[in-house]
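Most newcomers find our protein records easier to grasp once they have seen one. A learned vocabulary of local backbone shapes supplies the integers on the structure line. Here is such a record, shown just as it appears in the course material:
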Amino acid sequence: MKIAKLAFGLICLAILASNIVTMSRWSEARGVYDDICYLRQAHLFQRFGADGLNTDAARDDDRYFEGKMREIGFPEWRDPIRWPCHNPMPNGKIVIQYPPGTGWLLALFPEGHQVVPLCIAASLIVCGLALLGILMARTSLSIVGAGVFGALAVYLMINPAKASYSIPPTMAICAIAGFLTALWLIRSRYSVPSIVLVGLLLGASVNFRVPNALLAAGYFIFLGIRFLWSRTPANFVQGLGFGAGVLVGMAPTLIAQAVNAGSPLATTYGSADVVAPGLDLAVLGQYLRDMQFVLIALAIGLTAWLLRAGEASARQVALVAAGNLLVNLVFFLSHPIFTPYYILPIAMLSLWSLSFAWLMQPADAYEAASFRREPANLGALPR
């Protein structure tokens, strides 16, 4: 078993090393509109500090963004109303549509060398969690499962995570939150600080991508049903703590929306992104042919297996994952836009949570797992 753990650990480290070599060759001038807008966010933070939350196009008095537009041959670089990923607001401002988290992280690194260290730092976090999972495994099957999943998770940090600067930090948060979710329900025995920390992390992920707010949906459903089932002060405090953590975590985005759009609840996104959901078979077909479908299928399969054969506390993790998967898939599969990373966060958060739940089960649960057949039910929820 030690040899198997060492082998899978070395595989993960080898993939990480290969990723770092590849990332070190990446250019920040690949001409992608989203990239340039995130770099403008970072530039504003480096110029103005916390006041960089204000992304009004009028603040481009040093011609930073105009220069980026000219570099890629954008024909209307002089007209802010035509700038990509900027939208006019009712208050007269023309602002970046994205939340501030990605730009803030990029601003931690020197201009011209921002993307590579951000992606490497996120990859190191993911690889560290993958190695922890391999170390925790106690049976041959769990070692293979943790090793294969760990290698896959590290590989995904380069493809498709490279598609958007917002995805690497999101992936790192999903890995940490997945570990803490399993810890909360299996080892910490519903500790309030643990669920507050999970809420804080999921709230913080909204600062990278606004749709990451949906990552908290399954937790709210689970905590809400548990409180309605038992109506105990302890369950109420847990739900309240989680909600407070989410709110505090996403506070930078709420502040940025107040600064740029005039209200914490007003979106900075344009009409093309704020559309009513509806089933689009073309979009569904694209997901079915994409790697994301494989990850979602794995997450659904592992959720079903833990609900059927897992130890009682592991089934609670599976219930959270089930609610999360349902809400996120309904939203994204009915969204009229496809990208190679839209459902990557929910897939990885679910897989990290479920894999650590499997690994954290009591030793006797491994032996009994193949014989368990009782389904999870609300009666199993702690009162």
About this structure: The longest strand covers residues 86-88. The chain is about 65% helix and 0% strand.
